[in-house]
Each structure stands twice: as C-alpha cells, then as structure tokens.
C-alpha cells in the first residue's frame, strides 16, 4: 500500500507546487491549522515554539473538529486538529476532493464535566444522571436540579456545552446519550471553551463540559464532577492517573492531528513542523494538562508518520472508551 501511495504522490507534484505558491504570506510559506478547541492549546504551543526557532509562520484556528474537517477537506488547511476520529462522511468528502490524510494520535484527554463551585450537592454524578440532563427528551422539561434528582434543590439549571461542530460534542453525546449529536438544544453553545468556562463560573446553577485543560486552567472558579459508570460504582475524577489506568470511563479519549498527506510529502516546512510536533510536544502536552502517549505508543505513531501512511485506523466510526493500549491496534 505504501509503494502505491508514493507513486500516487508523484503525480501530485504540480498540485503541491501550486499550493506552495498560493498559500504564501508576504512571500513566505504559511502552515495553516484549524479545528478542535480541545487540541488547540497543544498545537498553539507547538506552533509558537516552532515559529520562534524556524521563523516559519504557523496559524492555528478554532472552528471545532467538524468545522476544521470541512476546511481540511476543501484543501484550505494543512493540518486539522480533532478531538475525535474522522467520520466516514468526512473521509468521503476528502476523497472527493482528492485529499489523502495521515491520522496522528497526539495525546489523551479527560472530557470534564464541571459545575459552579457554590454547587455542593452534585459533585458526583452517574452517566445515567448526565444522560437524563442532556438527552433530547429533556429539552424544555428538565429545567431545575430538582427535576434531575428529588434530593437536589429546586434551583434553575443552566447548561453550557460545545457547539454542533465540536468533536467534544460528538464524543460526549455518543458516550453519555448513546448517539452522536443526540442532545437537547436549549443550552448555551460555543466552539470557544473559554465562553463555557465563564458561563458555568458565573451561574450558580451552571453545568457544562469540555476538555480537561480548560478545567485545569480554571479550577479555582470551577468544580469538576466525579463520574460514576453506574449507581454501584465509585465516582472518578478526571486525572492523569485515571486516564492511564482506564478508570475514567467513558469520558477519556484520544485526541489527534490530521495532516494533508500530499503536502507533507512535498513540502519540507510542513514535514519539519510535524516532525517537530511529535518530537517536542510531550512537555507542552503535560504543561496544558493533557496526557502524553506512553513511549511504546509514541514510537509507533512516529513510525506511522515517517512512513506517510494515509487513512484512519478507526474505520470512520465513533469509538467510545478507547484506552491508551488501544492506540497501537489502530496504527496500521
């Protein structure tokens, strides 16, 4: 498969050259990244250091995982940040546009449910509680905390969550409600997680969810909810240890970058950036409070990238509860 891919790339040299001319900024190559707000802190940190060292301009946008893939599959970006694996319809869109991609898991995240710090009654919740709150049937009906649990106060419930283009929205609804994008619509939605942070922090009845990095950065104004798989289970708070040992389930998940394969093969600056990303991102991943891949999995990912292997190991399907040890199974 690899030989065929390299031969196919040879026919795309003209396209790559044209791209290099079109995407220059003031005569300089610009590497364009867009997508997940969850992955943004890592890509932004890597981009900043890479720019400082190489003087190559890198832009990083936040349009959500779905929004990022739309741009990526139109050829508008070089790299797409994603907080979930690429979907089959997005694979088809890229294929129709002649775009092959390389899927690169970069870290693990603990999708974090948060409440206002003045909330002292819902510090532990079951997955069933979360489903009751967020499923479509709750819209317009479950408006107070008491309507969720009779033991909780008759206080207005204020919900904050990612927008429909967010991979976090897709993953949460799949893991909690049981179907991707199946959610009540009467909540404050934003692709910018900082908006969600401020919303929950500013409303005593607030509840929201987003990537762990945004909670860690704002834990002085938010409370993380300990999640129980079921009523008989023990509540588990998001943490590096809970991700590594597989106990923070079903809300632990891998996060990715997707690289335009043709451009990576012909553009030395893009290739150098991804090399840099994989070589230098571990301390940055830890700094923004995500969990780096273990050494063996990281080595497999680097080998996968060096071989320029296109495609996805997830088959275009939503996958919940993927553990660190599963990454090697998906790198083919």
Account of the protein in words:
The chain has helices at residues 2-10, 13-22, 40-54, 64-72, 88-96, 127-134, 167-177, 193-201, 212-217, 240-244, 261-266, 268-287, 295-306, 327-330; strands at 24-25, 28-35, 57-60, 79-82, 101-110, 112-115, 124-126, 158-161, 188-189, 206-210, 223-224, 226-228, 252-260, 291-292. The strands form three sheets. Strands 1, 2, 3, 4, 5, 13 and 14 form a seven-stranded mixed β-sheet that branches. The chain has two domains: 2-108 and 254-330, 3-Layer(aba) Sandwich (D-Maltodextrin-Binding Protein, domain 2), CATH 3.40.190.10; 112-237, 3-Layer(aba) Sandwich (D-Maltodextrin-Binding Protein, domain 2), CATH 3.40.190. α3 (40-54) crosses α12. The chain is elongated and about 60 Å long. The longest helix is centred in the C-terminal third of the chain and has 20 residues, at 268-287. It is of the alpha/beta class.
């Amino acid at each position: 498969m690899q030989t065929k891919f390299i031969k196919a790339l040879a026919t795309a040299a003209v396209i790559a050259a044209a791209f290099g001319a079109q995407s220059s900024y003031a005569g300089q190559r610009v590497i364009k990244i867009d997508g997940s707000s969850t992955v943004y802190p890592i890509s932004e940190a890597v981009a900043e250091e890479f720019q400082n060292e190489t003087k190559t301009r890198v832009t990083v946008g936040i349009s959500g995982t779905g929004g990022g893939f739309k741009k990526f599959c139109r050829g508008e970006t070089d790299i797409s940040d994603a907080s979930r694996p690429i979907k089959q319809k997005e694979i088809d869109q890229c294929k129709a546009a002649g775009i092959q991609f390389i899927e690169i898991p970069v870290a693990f995240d603990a999708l974090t449910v948060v409440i206002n710090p003045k909330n002292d009654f819902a510090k532990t919740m079951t997955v069933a509680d979360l489903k009751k709150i967020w499923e479509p049937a709750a819209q317009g009906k479950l408006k107070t905390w008491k309507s969720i649990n009779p033991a909780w106060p008759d206080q207005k419930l204020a919900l904050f969550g990612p927008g429909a283009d967010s991979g976090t929205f897709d993953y949460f609804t799949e893991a909690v409600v049981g179907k991707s994008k199946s959610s009540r619509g009467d909540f404050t939605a934003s692709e910018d997680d900082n908006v969600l942070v401020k919303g929950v922090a500013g409303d005593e009845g607030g509840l929201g969810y987003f990537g762990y990095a945004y909670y860690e950065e704002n834990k002085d104004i938010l409370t993380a909810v300990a999640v129980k798989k079921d009523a008989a289970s023990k509540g588990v708070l998001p943490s590096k240890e809970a991700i590594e040992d597989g106990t923070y389930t079903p809300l632990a998940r891998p996060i990715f970058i997707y690289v335009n394969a043709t451009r990576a093969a012909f553009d030395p600056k893009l290739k150098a950036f991804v090399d840099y990303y994989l070589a230098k991102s571990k301390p940055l991943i830890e700094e923004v409070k995500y969990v780096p891949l273990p050494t063996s999995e990281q080595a497999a990912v680097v080998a996968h990238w060096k071989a320029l292997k296109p495609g996805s190991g997830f088959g275009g399907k939503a996958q919940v509860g993927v553990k660190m040890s599963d990454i090697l199974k998906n790198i083919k």
